[in-house]
Structures are given as C-alpha cells and as structure tokens.
Amino acid sequence: MKTLMLGNEAVARGLYEAGCSFVSSYPGTPSTEITECAAKYPEIYAEWAPNEKVAMEAAFGACLAGKRSFCGMKHVGLNVAADPLFTISYTGVNAGMIIAVADDAGMHSSQNEQDSRHYAMAAKIPMLEPADSAEGLEFAKLAYELSEKFDTPVLLKMCTRVAHSQSVVEPGERVEAPEKPYEKNGPKYIMMPGNAKRRHPIVEERTNALIAYAETSPLNRVEEGSDHKIGIITSSTSYQYVKEVCGDRFPVLKLGMIWPMPEKLIKDFAAGVEQLVVVEELDGFIEAHCRNLGLSPMGKDTFSCIDELNQNIVAEKLGIPVVTGWNSQDCIYDEHPLYIGRAGNMGDRPGNFAVQNSDLVLSLGSRLSIRQVGYNYPTWAREAYVIYNDIDAEELKKPTVHVDMPVHADVRDLLEKMEMVLEVEAVSADGGPKDKEAVDWWISRCQQWKEKYPVVLPKHYEAGEDQPANIYAAIKEISRRAEEDQITVVGNGSPCVVGGHAYEMKKGQRFISNSAIASMGYDLPAAIGACLADHTKDIILVTGDGSIQMNLQELQTIIHNHLPIKIFLINNQGYHSIRQTQKTHFHEPLVGIGVDSGDLSFPSMEKLAWAYGYPYVAAHHNSQLGEAVEQTLATDGPVICEIFVDMEQNFEPKAAAKMLPDGTMVSVPLEDLAPFLPEEELAENMIIPMIKPQ
Question: What is the model's pLDDT at position 499?
Fold first, then answer.
C-alpha cells in the first residue's frame, strides 16, 4: 500500500526490505533519521557509534562476517571516516555494504557546504543519488546488489531536501539475504603495501565495469522533451527543480548513479540538443565530467556553487530592489544588498518609499490586502506598471488594486520559470541586468532610504534606569543575537507588530506570525509545532502578557518535554494594541486594556515560572536587555525571560489618518507615514509627484 515517507525513512525501509542486518552510524542532521527509523525494525541490529570512523569500521566488520550492513553520517562526518573509506575501496566487501552520506547545501545545521561527490571519485567507489523518497527506498535495495556484484562498498548520497521531504513510496516485503561465509583472504583484506599494489588494478577494472554498467542502467535515464534548444543534465533535488520549472519541454538526462558517470550516454544526449545545461547544487561536479568529455555545458557560470538553489536567485538576476510584506519578512535577509525594507500600513519608510516611487512593481505571492496597499489605495504605487501574481484568481480581480498584468500561478512555479527565462534571455553577458546604469542608480537610491530611516532609533534606547525598557530596543536586542537559520515565533499585538517592524532578519531565518488572523494564544502551540518540526536549533518565542494567558497550560507541555523554546514575554501590563486604539480614537474612560483601565490585571509571571519549573530571567530597563537576552539564549532547555516595557510607546512608523485644517480626517498615501515627516523632507524623498491631502 502506498504511503508518504520522509526520504530518510524510505532509505531505512529499503535497508529493511533488502535484508540488512547490521547498522552502525553517528548522528548528524540531515542523516540521523535513517538510523532512527532502521532501529525500529527488530530484524536489524542498530547502534550509535562513538564517531563516524568507528561506525564505518563496525559496519565493515559486519559485512566481512557475511551480513548486509549499513553506516550513515552527514557530509562532515565522512571526513572523520575517510581513512577506512579509502581502504575499504581497495579491499572490497563480502556481504553488501552501504555508506550513506547526507550533504547540507545551505548549511541549515552544518559548518560548511562540502560536496561529498568528490569522495566517491577520489575513493573510486560508486555513488547513488536518489531524488525523492521512492528512489531512496529502491536505490538502497539496488545498492546492495551493486555492492555484491562489483565487490565494493556503495555510497548513497542524500541531501537535506530529499532527506527531510515526504513523497509517496510503495513499501514491499523483507527479503532475507543469505549469510555469506567469511573466507580468510589476506591478499584481499590486509592492505599492506604489497597487497594494496595488487588490489589497485582490480579497483580500476571495477571502475571501468561500473562505467559500462552506468551506460545502460535504469538509474540513469533520458526524459524526452519537445524543445531541443536546451538539454539539461541533473540529479537529486535539482532534478525536481528542473521538472517544476520546465515540465516536459526540454530533454532531461537524470543521473541516479552520480559516480562513475556514463560517457557515451552523456555524449549522445549532448549531441541531440543545441545547448547543454547542467543544473546541480554545490560544486560543478557533473559539469567538470562533461568538460572532460570535450563538451561545453552551461553550469556554474550561471548557477552558484554556494547555498541551495532558491528563489532569491530571481531577484539577483533581475537586479532590482526587494521589499517584503507583512507576513513575508523572512523571504530575504536584511543584509542582502537588494533588500530595502517592509511595505504597507505597518511597514517602514524605506519599503514604502521604494514601492511608491517605483515605475514597475512585481508582486509575488502577496494578497496586496489593505494592509499592503493602504486605506488610500488609489494612491498605492500610482505611477507603476503593476504585475500582480496570486494563486487565487479572485484576488487578481479585487477593486482595491490596480493591476496591469495579472498572473494566476503558484509563486514557486512562476519564480522558477522566471529563473530559467532570465538565464537565457534577460541578462547581460556578465550575468547582470541589461540596463545596469539605471538599475544601479535605483538600488543606490533605495539603499539611501534604508540607511537614513531605520525603524529602531536612538530615542528607543534613551530610557534610563528609572524607566521601563523600550519594546523596539527589546526586539532589536533579541534579533541581533539570534542565529542564522533559527526560527522565531511571535504572538499577537506588540510582538507581531514591533517584531514585524524591527526584527533583524538573518540568512535562513524563519519568522512565524499569524498576522491578520488575530487569534490570541496561538503562539505557545505554534512554538511547540516549530520545535517538533525543526530540531536543529532552539526556538525563539516572543509573546505578550495578554496572549500567553490564552494557552498558558502549554507551558507544561514545553517543560514536560524539555523543548528548547526560549520564551521572551513582553510585559506592557495590558493589551497594548487595544490601548493605543482607545487612546487615539476614543479617549477616556479606558476599558479592558490593562492596569491603566483599572479593570484588568495579570498574574506574576515570575511565580508562574517557578510553579511550572522554568528558569526565570527579567529585564526591567534598557540597560538590562543585552545581558538578559544572552542569559536566556545560553540557558539549556526551556526558559522564560520577562521584559517590562513602556506602556506609552506607540507602534511606529505606521499609516495614520491626517487632520486637515478644517478638522477633517483623511487617509494619506503610504509614503506619508506617522510620525509625519515635515513636508519639505517628504518632498525630498519623492521622485514621482506628491499628492496633497484634501
């Protein structure tokens, strides 16, 4: 029966079905789950070894004893096991032996982006590379057959996106592998120099035999396309990206056996297309092989050897500034040279200046709600040609947005197709935008706004020892200490608004909020979910004194399971969003907002932390913020840090109504955020004609 499995889980299933009896591994994301899942099968003995070298040697010993064996590790772990790896290549095996190595392009949980394919070539060992869970299962089974047929260990290469993605597999039954008797054979298994010299020619003969096998193996297949202008060679997760972008348009040579690679098959494929393109993550491994065969493919001159393939590539190829929306702050990191700011009612000045002064706006995956276009929506991006993408066709028809080119599509599909088109048609010879001078001027102007109008200002740090801390300073101090690739969850009210305003996004970070849904209390459960979904780093939760009361019982869930969630509680003694609305629009008497309305109060979080068994940290003043945040983040396991902040700090900048001389309140364009700039300063920042409120 078909079922969904993680790539790692599917590999473990393949080990089981192939009759594997012995597993010894060392844990390391993204490889860990293979061994964790294999251990659940009673027919498989599974253990964690002290390190990767010991794991490989233990698995090798099991295979010599006649049992199919496995060891797994991440890419940097293969460095630790390199010594036995090269020796085992020369000795060969008895029963089948698989060595799984999981690369981590993007360094989600690693200290480098090492490409393990080089080990396969250097050690002269075959390497298989599945592109989804189904292949993970089947390739594991096939790897044992290759191992025993060619007398070699087999490397099975995973990557983060295949290892940790789910796809459909069809499990089968276990087939017990007959135990192979051990035969004492010193010349084969004892690699003293004299024996090793005699084994080397055998290794080379094996490589030639594997090349011949690769030419016709179902592991490598050609998928025909209708347009032979381009032919693409790819593998692993890159294959999935290619198919999403191109569908069946271009011919594709998918390599499941990444080493040794076929020679005739590649040459024949290249002969049938006008331009050969290699799409692969990290190093130009396939590309180099193609060049050694006398071919001239496009490859790393186009696709970076740094990081995963991702949609930010499109922005970089277009060379235009990027502005994020209310719920998409983590789409790009703040220090990216193309990032400008955040736009909309609760955006910042640089982001709104950029949108409002644009002659072209490309909106991707944003609903362009009133939060994004403002209450005075006819004035939004009023001089721009607007290309508006949404997965919901009805969103493209709403009257609050002027649309010149509606694009009904999944944003991922659109971005990937744009990337492919830009690769061929829309960039200059050096890979940048064609109108570079104009683009550089525009980016420079946008960066000037970004530098001149930061959200967190010196005034937010001015509060003395006799005053509460400032919420903007608090968010700044938390975010500047957060790590790359870390997840932050924010609750409603101040954490959501000020977090969306002021949180400093780093590369790979995720910022999770439920903005516009306004379901107070979601944040503790959301942090638990994020923690269970991603075990690589501690989770940061920023919640409010009001929001946390809605699901307070989940504090026990967190402490019971020792989940590494760092809880920063913003104590503004009430519901601050409601407080600001009442004070701005309704004045006295205040109702239901907190201690200042006299009808609402909150329990002591310090006492609650003690009751639940949490370490407790507090910051009452700006001067205490840095130390409190660092202590919280350094604490092992769950911890609560309560930050007491000023009740009078408004959300800023933000869209606000402006009062005319006659007392009339009007909505103003988004370039004119409150606190309002002097008219002369606002005019200096406008490229397009200004609109006077009336």
Answer: 86
Q: What is the DSSP letter of 352?
A: H
The residue from 171, 194, 216 where one domain ends is 216
CA-nearest of 494, 492, 466 to 622 is 466
- pLDDT at residue 282, rounded to an integer: 79
User: For residue 543, which of 562, 560, 516, 565 has the smallest C-alpha distance?
Assistant: 565
The pair of structure tokens assigned to 59 is 């698995």
State the average pLDDT for the chain. Answer: 88
- Asked whether residue 366 is domain-assigned, the answer is yes
Answer whether residue 266 shows pLDDT above 90: yes
383-389 LR contacts (CB < 8 Å, sep 24+)? 383/357, 383/358, 383/359, 383/688, 384/355, 384/358, 384/359, 384/360, 385/359, 385/360, 385/361, 386/361, 387/360, 387/361, 387/362, 387/363, 388/363, 389/362, 389/363, 389/364, 389/365, 389/414
Please state, in angstroms and rounded to a whole number, the distance separating the CA atoms of residues 319 and 330: 19
387 shares a domain with 476: no
Using pLDDT thresholds of 50, 70 and 90, give the confidence band for residue 472: very high
Q: Give the Cα separation of 542 and 494 in Å (integer).
A: 9
Residues 347 and 381 in one domain: yes
Task: Classify residue 330: in a domain, yes or no.
Answer: yes
Residues 526 and 401 grouped into a single domain? no
Average pLDDT of 129-144? Answer: 95
Q: Tens of pLDDT along 541-569?
A: 999 888 888 888 999 999 999 999 999 99
Q: Say if residue 235 is in the same domain as residue 172.
A: no
Indicate which CATH number applies to the domain containing 579: 3.40.50.970
Q: Are residues 21 and 39 in the same domain?
A: yes
Q: Which residues pair with residue 654 across a beta bridge?
A: 674
Q: In whole angstroms, how far apart are CA 195 and each of 124, 125, 189, 199?
A: 17, 19, 8, 6
Q: Phi-psi category of 66—alpha, beta or left, where left has phi over 0 and alpha has psi -120 to 50?
A: left
Tens-digit pLDDT profile for residues 29-45: 899 999 999 999 999 99
CATH at 264: 3.40.50.920
Q: CA-CA distance, 525 to 591, in Å (whole number)?
A: 29
Whole-number pLDDT of residue 198:
93
Our count of domains for the chain comes to 4
CA 453, 456, 462, 466 dihedral sign is: positive
Statement to judge: residues 59 and 181 lie in one domain: yes
Interatomic CA distance for residues 609 and 616, integer angstroms = 6
210 and 164: one domain?
yes
Would you say residue 138 lies in a domain? yes
Question: Which uninterrupted H or E stretch holds 510?
Answer: strand 510-512
- Residue range of the domain that includes 401: 316-452
Co-location of 181 and 279 in the same domain: no
Q: Round to the nearest angstrom and report the end-to-end CA distance of the chain.
A: 67
How far apart (Å, rounded) are the C-alpha atoms in residues 103 and 164?
12
Contact present, 523 and 575 (Cβ < 8 Å): no
**Helix ranges restricted to H, 431-522:** 436-452, 471-481, 494-502
Share of the chain above pLDDT 90, in %: 58
Task: List pLDDT tens digits, range 222-265.
Answer: 999 888 988 889 998 888 878 877 778 889 999 999 999 999 99
> Is 662 within the bounds of a domain?
no
Show which of 452, 473, 497 is a domain's final residue. Answer: 452
DSSP string, 480-493: HHSPTT-EEEE-SS
Distance between CA 580 and CA 672 in Å, rounded? 20
DSSP 624: G
Which CATH number goes with the domain that contains 325?
Answer: 3.40.50.1220
Asked if pLDDT for residue 16 goes beyond 90, the answer is: yes
Q: Which pair of structure tokens corresponds to residue 358?
A: 């644009």
Whether the per-residue pLDDT at 123 is higher than 90: the answer is: yes
Q: Report the C-alpha gap between 645 and 620 in whole angstroms.
A: 7
Q: Say what the pTM is.
A: 0.61
